[in-house]
């Protein structure tokens, strides 16, 4: 009886093994690395005119996961294409694999730039106004707090009469006030012309991530 069962079991195992051996994992395609993706900078000239648009680019990604070269396939404005290429070249990628080996591959992506053409409020020019730095002394003492700043922005994009408020240490309040007072802005628009308007900024200082102020806006 045992001799009859054993050949059947052995045959079944051989059949199962042969089926598994024929199954191959699908090839992994190149993807942007979410931990090393650089956001595209909104071109100041297009932002100033309140233009929205898109740019589609095609890049060659090396086996090590970096963009070797990128070309603009289409763009609603030349500056959008340049911004898209610059972002891709500065980003990292998860390379494409074939037979467990990374391969050179192509990557295509469309960047979207959106703004409100009818906005009557000033826009902080973050391209030329980098996020405020956490003061070293505040970092040593693990200070935290929220600060709100109100400014008048003239038609040129310069801040005037800025004031700060909020329940936070004076050092953080002063740092926030200085940042918004010295920052650059795209002025508010009325009937297609720049006008003076009010701006309200806010920083949520977090001592846990002093170099990554997610609460900044």
TrEMBL record:
<dbReference type="InterPro" id="IPR037682">
    <property type="entry name" value="TonB_C"/>
</dbReference>
<keyword id="KW-0472">Membrane</keyword>
<dbReference type="InterPro" id="IPR006260">
    <property type="entry name" value="TonB/TolA_C"/>
</dbReference>
<keyword id="KW-1003">Cell membrane</keyword>
<keyword id="KW-0812">Transmembrane</keyword>
<dbReference type="GO" id="GO:0055085">
    <property type="term" value="P:transmembrane transport"/>
</dbReference>
<protein>
    <submittedName>
        <fullName>TonB family protein</fullName>
    </submittedName>
</protein>
<dbReference type="Pfam" id="PF03544">
    <property type="entry name" value="TonB_C"/>
</dbReference>
<keyword id="KW-1133">Transmembrane helix</keyword>
<feature type="signal peptide">
    <location>
        <begin position="1"/>
        <end position="21"/>
    </location>
</feature>
<dbReference type="InterPro" id="IPR051045">
    <property type="entry name" value="TonB-dependent_transducer"/>
</dbReference>
<feature type="domain" description="TonB C-terminal">
    <location>
        <begin position="131"/>
        <end position="206"/>
    </location>
</feature>
<comment type="similarity">
    <text>Belongs to the TonB family.</text>
</comment>
<keyword id="KW-0653">Protein transport</keyword>
<dbReference type="GO" id="GO:0015031">
    <property type="term" value="P:protein transport"/>
</dbReference>
<dbReference type="GO" id="GO:0005886">
    <property type="term" value="C:plasma membrane"/>
</dbReference>
<keyword id="KW-0813">Transport</keyword>
<keyword id="KW-0732">Signal</keyword>
<keyword id="KW-0997">Cell inner membrane</keyword>
<feature type="domain" description="TonB C-terminal">
    <location>
        <begin position="41"/>
        <end position="114"/>
    </location>
</feature>
């Amino acid at each position: 009886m045992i001799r009859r069962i054993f050949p059947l079991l052995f045959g079944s195992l051989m059949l199962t093994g042969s089926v598994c051996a024929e199954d191959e994992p699908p090839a992994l395609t190149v993807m942007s690395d979410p931990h090393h993706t650089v956001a595209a900078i909104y071109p100041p000239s297009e932002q100033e005119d309140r233009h929205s648009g898109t740019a589609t680019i095609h890049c060659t990604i090396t086996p090590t996961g970096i963009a070797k070269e990128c070309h603009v396939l289409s763009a609603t404005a030349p500056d959008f294409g340049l911004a898209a290429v610059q972002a891709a070249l500065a980003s990292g990628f998860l390379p494409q694999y074939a037979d467990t080996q990374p391969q050179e591959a192509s990557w295509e992506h469309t960047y979207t730039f959106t703004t409100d053409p009818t906005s009557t409020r000033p826009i902080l020019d973050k391209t030329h106004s980098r996020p405020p730095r956490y003061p070293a002394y505040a970092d040593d003492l693990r200070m935290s707090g929220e600060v709100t700043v109100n400014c008048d922005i003239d038609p040129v994009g310069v801040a005037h009469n800025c004031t700060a408020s909020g329940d936070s240490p004076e050092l953080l309040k002063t740092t926030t006030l200085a940042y918004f007072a010295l920052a650059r802005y795209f002025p508010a628009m009325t009937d297609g012309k720049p006008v003076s308007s009010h701006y309200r900024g806010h920083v949520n200082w977090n001592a846990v991530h002093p170099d990554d102020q997610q609460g900044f806006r």
